[in-house]
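Sequence in, structure out.
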Amino acid sequence: MAPNAARIPPIQALLAFEAVARLRSVTQAAAELSVTPSAVSHRIRQLESQLGLKLFAARGEFLPTAEGAAYLARVREAMAALQDQPLAGQPGADAPARLRVAVTPTFSRQLLLPRLAMFRHAYPDIELMLQVAIPIHNVTAEEADIELRFGTGPFPDRESMHLLSDEVCPVCSPEYLREAGPFDDGFETEASIGRAHLIRSPLEPWRTWFRACGIGLPEPASGNQFNDLGLVHDAAVAGFGVALMRMRLGQSWLDSGRLVRLSPRSVRSPHDYFLCWKPGTLERWECAAFVDWLRGALK
């Protein structure tokens, strides 16, 4: 009977364990393996979780426990057996771990890509493949290991982790404000809203703002509509009217002066970002590493 591959620990985790046990140092092990110390620590934690064993008695000294020492002997025996085989030149001998991540377009441009250099430096042995996800329908161009989903959750076909919440505020271009404004009431009355063209999106309905301001207007049924939040912001820059902007996602539009806030107030959006994956996916060290990294990077 063939061995259960799902129970075999990743070779990167085994190499990290053996190097730390031999060198008694995460830093030296990281230098030997050409990765960061945080990557080494993550791999050892993943190995301990998968095995259900505590491998080191003390993190500061990195002395193996009795169970760790027994497992270390088996790891070294397996490595010695592998080293006896001529692997040089064989396809895939040093292939990187490939990670497929599906992300929505504006989130990718505004929040993920500016931080990806940190991930690349922390995990140089992970080959990242980014794919486009459509936020309304949770559709990806191809199958992905980790998906970014936008909505309220939960997602019955996936395990998920809440990643990011945001607040919304009405914005427009300085030119449109001169044309249709001023909105001295903070865009919080029916009178101001009635004078403006509202840019619509199913991703961020205007009813969130209306309810927070005690306005009894229904969701707008006509007007320009976009199903990508970046397009919503760009339409506001182009003078289409007033948009309801997610503050963290749209901060660069405000910083550049292309858009201006119409109210000092912001209200919690009902829609959040979640990372999702099929059950069992986080048993792969590269998937668990990305989820942990992105959660920390967005704090």
